[in-house]
Design a protein that fits this description.
This protein is α+β, with helices and mostly antiparallel strands. The protein has two domains: 92 residues, Pdz3 Domain (Roll); 144 residues, Glutaredoxin, CATH 3.40.30.10. Helix content is 28%, strand content 29%. It has eight helices and 15 strands. A hairpin with a 2-residue loop joins strand 3 and strand 4. The longest helix has 17 residues.
């Protein structure tokens, strides 16, 4: 089991689940959600950021999000939100998560050497993707359209029949995804020989994925989604984790991965591994 401090770090990371609108990939949000607006009760800003010595550099902005409507652009450096100066995306997300939809916040940013202040009205995160979950749970798992990058296992479900499969829809730019990968690696190392296949799926460029794996190697299988697998599984947020039993049926779908979710995931894997192969 993880030390408590690591679990708490993952719990915070779980609050930072990446937003992935299918028309606008590579974007982080404050919590798991499927689109910029949609009836949730928590606040959403809609930014991907990376730390720098002068603040948080905006990597991408969700189209139609509060950040986009406020005029933020990739390349801007966020130096202050309200009276706080977050130094990491985790700190920024924690601030946003503590507020409510409809709140107007002041954002100070640097663009082209000059400072400016803009106002953004936080939106509600969309509802939990329960419809997709309800459609998939108990149904045959959609086929994978994937291209192997690294790892010991095949990337076709027919070739994995009889094994428990844990799909991880992830991206290198997604901080929570990166935070979850060591735990997935532990699961794979512990249970692979008992019949578990962990399969990470991303639609990023091959060179980007390989560079990430060179820095942060894992023992499980990594593949590129090359034929719309994420759409067939209704993936709108990252990480999305899907558990498929030995008979090829979807048994669990989790969006985001805090400490409690990872513990439930481990328990589910252990239960499914105890079931006989068909």
């Amino acid at each position: 089991m993880r030390p408590r401090s690591t679990l708490l770090s993952l719990a915070l990371a779980g609050a930072l689940v990446a937003l992935l609108p299918l028309a606008a990939p590579r974007v982080l949000g404050a919590v798991a959600h499927a689109a910029p607006h949609g009836g949730g009760t928590r606040a959403f800003l809609g930014l991907a950021t990376e730390p720098s010595p002068t603040g948080l550099v905006v990597v991408e902005v969700v189209p139609g999000s509060p950040a986009a409507l406020a005029g933020l652009q990739p390349g801007d450096t966020l130096t202050r939100i309200e009276h706080a100066t977050p130094r990491t995306h985790a700190e920024l997300a924690a601030l946003v998560a503590a507020w409510v939809p409809g709140r107007a916040v002041s954002l100070q940013l640097r663009r082209g050497g000059s400072l400016r202040t803009v106002r953004a009205t936080l939106a509600a995160v969309p509802r939990d993707p329960a419809a997709t979950r309800g459609t998939l749970i108990g149904a045959p798992a959609p086929e994978l359209g994937a291209e192997l990058i690294a790892g010991p296992d095949p990337v076709r479900l027919d070739a994995l029949r009889g094994r428990v499969v844990l799909l991880d829809f992830w991206a290198t730019w997604c901080g929570p995804c990166r935070a979850v990968m060591p735990e997935l690696d532990r699961l794979s190392r512990q249970y692979h020989d008992r019949g578990l296949t962990v399969l990470g799926l991303t639609d990023e460029r091959l060179d980007t994925v390989r560079a990430h794996l060179a820095r942060s190697p894992v023992s499980y299988t990594i593949a590129r989604d090359v034929r719309g697998t994420s759409r067939r599984y209704g993936v709108t947020a990252m990480p999305t984790l899907v558990v498929i039993d030995r008979a090829g049926q979807v048994r669990e779908l989790t969006v985001g991965a805090d400490a409690a979710a990872l513990q439930r995931l481990r328990q589910q894997v252990e239960l499914l591994l105890a079931e006989p192969a068909p």
